[in-house]
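[audit] Reproducing an earlier prediction to check determinism. Same input, same settings, fresh worker. If the tokens differ from the archived copy the diff job will pick it up downstream; this log only records the rerun itself.
[audit] input (73 residues):
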Amino acid sequence: MYSTGEFVQEMLVLYSIAILGFIVRKTGILNENTNDVLTQLILYITLPALILFSLDIPFSVTIIKEFLWFILL
């Protein structure tokens, strides 16, 4: 279970990312077109990769065989 220190550390990272994004947007480093590109990057690359990573199961031929059998059913 997480301790208070680990929770605060994670929250500081998230707030730092949010503040960095706000500063970058206000200074004009990223323009309006960047929004669409970042959204597509998150939806089509980052989110599926995160889902696959979160499965946390070891790769084996048995799993592939069971998956193919499941698809056939």
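[audit] rerun output stored. Observation attached for the diff report: The mean pLDDT is 87.
[audit] end
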